[in-house]
Design brief:
Layout (H helix, E strand, L loop, with lengths): L1 H42 L1 H5 L3 H14 L3 E8 L4 E6 L16 E5 L2 E10 L2 E11 L1 H53 L12 H51 L3 H31 L8 E4 H15 L4 E6 L5 E4 L1 H17 L6 E9 L2 E8 L32 H11 L3 E6 L4 E8 L11 H5 L2
Parallel strand pairs: 7-9
Antiparallel strand pairs: 1-2, 1-5, 3-4, 4-5, 6-8, 9-10, 10-12, 11-12
Helix pairs in contact: 1-4, 5-6, 6-9, 7-8, 8-9
This protein binds adenosine-5'-diphosphate (ADP).
Length: about 450
């Protein structure tokens, strides 16, 4: 746009410049030729009065010789009859415009035609007509066109260069801002963008930075609140559970025991939620510790499947291991927590279906676990977001109770083991995959720097 505007403005400016230059050249030429015509008209009075054709022709010849631009000169008598004429050899006189009995100046193409009345004591006795070639006009036009082309090209190149520099400067900062926004959305790390400018983009960046600081602060407050509230809730809930357990064991009336058991189930749900919230709080403050040991992973899978099967009678959980006795180095309890979450999700999100498949295999230096259900599936656009904190899909899953914390905790635990976790939609239902590195005890398992920061 900048280059286009520059070209248009310069084009108009140069056009006006060329037109006015040509106009002033023509005016100057007409003025000087008119003066000359007046002198010749005055000098040819006596030749006309005495019908001295020879003198008149000589006068015209002399005029043409001394002023090379005058290519054709004619004197008419008062009746319009040709009295004397002189043409430069080789000149096209066919274009000559006959302007008898008037004082006139006419431009036609590269030619100027002038006629001047010849008077003797105020009495009209004839007309002098001149055909002048505007030889410089073509040269002026060519010269100006060349100059304008060079200037225009230089101006366009300069405008393009300036536009490019400005554009790069603006685009770079805007792209940087957009990339940061994408990163913030992906990782949940509320980072700011450094910028020292004073223009509109800087105002935008400053507004973004301010927003990031405010969001970070409110996130921190929320995390603090979640941490404190979960801690405060944990103690009374533990004692409520203790009393309910006691009541359950001593109550004899079966109707009353049913109420106690219902209360216990609800307390257990609350306990799970508080446990999740405490884990989230630990992840946020970077305090989620791993108790690393070597253990047989397929054994852990079998145990977890068995305990889940016991509480999910409507579903059939089937296990299939390609490798048996594979040891991995990690936190057994935390990996079990991940498996429980994936298996209970598979059961929870496949109402009306009965089958859940759990399989495992070794792939290179990784141990892959797959949990597959035939349930409601996950909308494609949500696949990458279900691991975010508090994220729940908006479709049919929203009618099933949950808090959107389980997968977030799973991801953090798996990342801390330097593993991967991902979901994939099947023709019916969903598959969740975990990939864990097969490490030796001697290898220190340090969580990767970038994975700790993921919130
Ligand atoms: P919660 O199940 O408590 O809502 P999760 O973090 O375990 O929390 O899961 C996040 C979201 O991912 C769920 O709300 C649900 O929308 C979706 N989801 C998880 N597992 C499955 C599954 N097996 N099938 C369909 N949707 C699932």
């Amino acid at each position: 746009m900048q280059v286009f505007t520059s070209v248009v403005v310069l084009g108009v400016f140069f056009a006006v410049f060329i037109i006015s230059d040509i106009k002033s050249y023509k005016e100057r030429k007409a003025e000087s030729m008119n003066s000359l015509a007046q002198v010749i008209a005055a000098n040819s009075v006596s030749a006309l009065q005495f019908q001295d054709n020879e003198t008149a022709t000589g006068l015209l010849k002399e005029l043409c010789v001394n002023s090379p631009d005058i290519v054709h000169a004619v004197i008419y008598d008062v009746n319009g009859k040709l009295f004397a004429r002189y043409s430069k050899p080789g000149v096209d006189t066919a274009v000559f415009v006959n302007l008898r009995n008037k004082n006139t100046t006419v431009f036609a193409g590269n030619q100027l035609f002038i006629s001047n009345l010849i008077r003797a004591e105020n009495e009209l006795i004839g007309t002098l007509s001149l055909q002048v070639e505007l030889s410089e006009l073509t040269a002026i036009k060519r010269g100006r066109a060349k100059l304008v082309t060079i200037l225009l090209l230089a101006a366009v190149a300069f405008a393009f260069l300036v536009a490019l520099i400005v554009q790069t400067y603006i685009s770079r900062r805007l792209l940087n801002l957009v990339n940061t926004m994408i990163q913030v959305r992906k990782t949940g790390n509320y980072v700011t963008v450094p910028d020292n400018g004073k223009d509109e983009i800087s105002t935008l960046i400053q507004a973004f930075n301010k927003l990031m600081v405010e969001v970070k602060e409110s996130q921190q407050k929320k995390d603090e609140f979640i941490g404190i509230a979960s801690h405060e809730l944990k103690t009374p809930l533990t004692s409520i559970k203790g009393y309910l357990d006691l009541l359950n064991s001593i109550e004899e009336k079966s109707a009353n025991r049913l109420f106690v058991q219902k209360s216990l189930e609800s307390v257990q749900k609350l306990e799970r939620l508080i446990k999740d919230l405490l884990d989230v709080s630990k992840i946020q403050s970077g305090q989620l510790q791993l108790n690393l040991k070597s253990f047989v992973i397929d054994e852990l899978i079998n145990e977890t499947v068995q305990s889940l099967q016991a509480v999910s009678p409507a579903h059939t959980l089937t296990c299939k291991h390609e490798v048996v006795g594979q040891r991995i180095y990690g936190d057994r309890q935390r990996i079990e927590q991940v498996l429980i979450n994936l298996l209970s999700n598979a059961v929870k999100y496949s109402p009306g279906e009965t089958e859940v498949l759990i399989s495992s295999k070794r792939s290179g230096d990784a141990f892959i676990i797959q949990v597959r259900d035939y349930g409601i599936g996950i909308p494609d656009e949500d696949l990458s977001r279900i691991f975010e904190r508090f994220y729940r899909t908006s479709g049919s899953a929203s009618h099933i109770s949950g808090f959107g914390l389980g997968l977030y905790i799973c991801r953090d635990i798996i990342y801390r083991h330097r593993g991967e976790i991902w979901a994939q939609n099947e023709e019916t239902g969903t598959s969740f995959f975990i990939s864990l590195p097969i490490q030796h005890e001697t290898e220190l398992l340090q969580p990767a720097e970038e994975t700790i920061k993921i919130k």
